[in-house]
Amino acid sequence: MVHSRRLPALALLALASTALAPVPPKAAEYLYLWTASADETQPDFLAVLDVTDDAPRYGRLVTTLAVPGRANGPHHTEHEMPADRQLFANGFRSGQSVVFDLADPTRPRIASQFGDLEGYSHPHSFLRLPNGNVLATFQMRHEAAAMTPGGIVELTPAGRVIRSSSANAPGTDPDLRVYSAGIVAALDRIVTTTTSMDKDVPSSRNLQVWRLSDLALLHTFPLPDGPAGNEGLRTAEPRLMADGKTVLVSTFSCGLYLMEGIASGAPSARMVASFPQKAGTSCAIPVIAGHYYLVTVPAWNAVVSLDISNPAAPREVSRVTLGTGDVPHWIAIAPDQRRVVITGYEALQHRVMIARFDSTTGQLALDDRFREDGATEPGFRMDNKTWPHGGNAKGIPHGAVFSRP
């Protein structure tokens, strides 16, 4: 039994031990930027930035990895880093896609590449399935006379085909192109959008619903418009809410739609919100974080945060406004949901921004600390570098994704 007169000394010893215990180093965090070379004689590349929060090296370039070929047109990556750290990324212009092995986060390597698969060409979006495989949307299929609607293909993480399914059902508009997708595993469904990357192809307002278990195409139906008369055009990105069953779909024409009856014989969607449109731009990539929906709105040069606790009546709670010449396009959120990366067009074409996000309130604010040494404005510029892989071409980042813990 310990004598009572010794307790204070023991308590002080315990406090001293606690105070002297080493603080574990903060885990390194990285940002991967899938980047086109503005000089097409130089290679496109993946850039790696160190974004370890509160570290002196915050925002510094770590390395770059050039990819084979020229003018691939780096476009979409997966929207979040997969658990296996095998990141799929498409070069839409060339039709070539790359799987980056990021198991060693500072030493990226190319694990595999692929082009047309099962007769389908120009993959656009990649999503992880519950079984760990990858669902790829392919815009089109090459036929003897013309291009026809593409389809969806299930791939292993190494890029090997498991199965595929065509979007070209009888009566389908031949100009329909499969764009992006949402996986609704709880309802055994997949939702795809149908916007063409070719601006000469007429705009589509259709959604398609597939059965996840066998990739069978079940329904194709159009979105209605709202007061502006065109909000349903150019269907863009389906996003699954936290309940695992509710799907919100954005359009490039700045409409936001709530899907209904996804697993029924007659699925539909209705517009629940919209944003002003700006000529020559598109409302683009959204992110769902808890009960908040974040989306780029070029007319406001902003990323907007909506409270979707009631998905039938979203309401704005915050926005982060960029420069007057900035056109935000792509956003992706960090695993801890505290930061959002932003890439885009016009004045934002060669620059990457980060916004801070409060997942409890939905508030957004520009990350003023994310800037280069001596810079007078936030952001990481990609038009004033000599790259580790060689060359000094201006970089045009598109897909961007944070590392996993």
Tally the helices: what do you get?
1
Encode the helix/strand succession as letters. HEEEEEEEEEEEEEEEEEEEEEEEEEEEEE
Report the sheet with the most strands, covering strand number, pairing sense and barrel closure: 5 strands, antiparallel
How many E strands?
29
Work out the strand percent. 35-45%
Describe the secondary structure blueprint for this structure.
Layout: H1 7-20, E1 30-37, E2 45-50, E3 60-66, E4 74-77, E5 86-91, E6 96-101, E7 109-114, E8 120-128, E9 134-142, E10 147-155, E11 161-166, E12 181-184, E13 189-193, E14 206-211, E15 216-222, E16 235-240, E17 247-251, E18 255-260, E19 268-274, E20 286-289, E21 292-297, E22 302-307, E23 315-321, E24 326-333, E25 339-346, E26 351-357, E27 364-366, E28 380-381, E29 395-402
Antiparallel strand pairs: 1-2, 1-29, 2-3, 4-5, 5-6, 6-7, 8-9, 9-10, 10-11, 12-13, 13-14, 14-15, 16-17, 17-18, 18-19, 20-21, 21-22, 22-23, 24-25, 25-26, 26-27, 26-28
What does this structure look like?
The chain has a domain at 116-277: Methylamine Dehydrogenase, Chain H (7 Propeller). The chain contains 1 helix and 29 strands. The protein has one helix spanning 7-20; strands at 30-37, 45-50, 60-66, 74-77, 86-91, 96-101, 109-114, 120-128, 134-142, 147-155, 161-166, 181-184, 189-193, 206-211, 216-222, 235-240, 247-251, 255-260, 268-274, 286-289, 292-297, 302-307, 315-321, 326-333, 339-346, 351-357, 364-366, 380-381, 395-402. Strands 24, 25, 26, 27 and 28 form a 5-stranded antiparallel sheet that branches. It is globular and about 60 Å long. The two termini are 45 Å apart.
